[in-house]
Write a structure and sequence with these properties.
single chain, 3-stranded parallel beta sheet, 3 helices, about 15% strand, globular
Length: about 110
């Protein structure tokens, strides 16, 4: 990527980065640490034309969510999430780096 002076890195985490999920303390911590690393690395990579962002899905109607019985109202379409990841990996997203974009249908109630 550095040799090509272009690249996109998109890490998939969870909206728990911005709004911790009760009973998932270790997962919440690990995903938040990923964002801290990404923020640091994004600054280092940006000068070489490489962006690094996180996509933070909330509940989506995946097969796993269906197995767990969590695919009712308030869950997103997985294709919508895929479109956000595709955008973050595209040329028009060339000035977005170090961001953590939640795709959660408004489930995150915090301001940051």
């Amino acid at each position: 990527m550095r040799a090509a002076h272009w690249g996109r890195i998109c890490c998939i985490a969870s909206y728990s980065v911005k709004q911790p999920i009760p009973t998932l303390a270790l997962s919440n911590t690990a995903r938040t640490a990923l964002w801290a690393w990404a923020k640091t690395a994004a600054s280092d990579l940006f000068g070489d034309g490489i962006t690094l962002n996180l996509a933070l899905p909330g509940p989506h109607a995946t097969e796993r969510m269906k197995q767990l019985g969590g695919d009712g109202p308030g869950t997103g379409d997985p294709a919508d999430f895929g479109s956000v990841v595709a955008f973050l990996c595209s040329e028009p997203a060339n000035f977005i780096t170090g961001a953590a974009l939640q795709v959660d249908g408004g489930a995150t109630t915090g301001l940051l």
